[in-house]
Design a protein that fits this description.
The chain is built from four helices and six strands. With 169 residues, the chain is α/β, with parallel strands linked by helices. It starts with a helix and ends with a helix.
Length: 169
């Protein structure tokens, strides 16, 4: 009986080891473009948390670089270069850059956590070994219903993006 239990324990260790050895490791970075403010919006953190939870719940090992604001291509490249290098050092398989573009000119509450304050989100997925883009896409928010124009709507929108990325990998 003891020998049988040892065999079962050994088999379980092998199965779990194989599962962890084959798990993908993803790192992501959110870059916020927002002409109305230089601070990271709570909405960007909602997107960050939704992505983290989505990938984790799919069994992916996930990490991220801090969400940052930039004012254009030069700032984007500086943030990207640092975060991509960290992802390579961390032995991540993929590095995902998501750019969240805000447009609050028509908003009645520009500082609020509303899906309608986001104009679009674009993303690029890089293979960290080859440093090549293997997937890219974007989603415009468009017209937002009152039921979706809240934190849950932002979270749902972010999960749709995460599903697009996950399905593309």
């Amino acid at each position: 009986m003891k020998k049988f239990r040892n065999i079962i324990t050994f088999a379980a260790v092998l199965i779990f080891s194989a599962a962890f050895a084959n798990a993908s490791v993803i790192s992501f970075q959110i870059i916020q473009h927002d002409k109305s403010q230089n601070e990271v919006r709570a909405s960007s953190y909602i997107i960050e948390n939704a992505l983290f939870d989505y990938f984790f719940n799919k069994g992916v090992i996930v990490t991220n670089a801090p969400t940052e604001t930039t004012d254009g291509a030069a700032g984007d490249m500086k943030v990207f270069s640092r975060s991509f290098y960290e992802a390579k050092l961390g032995h991540c398989n993929y590095f995902i850059v998501l750019t969240v573009d805000y447009d609050v000119r028509a908003s009645r509450n520009p500082k609020g956590n509303f899906l309608s304050n986001i104009n679009s989100v674009s993303w690029q997925v890089y293979d960290t070994v080859s440093s090549k883009v293997i997937l890219e896409g974007s989603r415009d928010v468009g017209k937002v219903s009152a039921q979706r124009n809240n934190e849950k709507g932002i979270e749902s929108f972010a999960c749709e993006i995460a599903a697009d990325i996950y399905d593309g990998l």
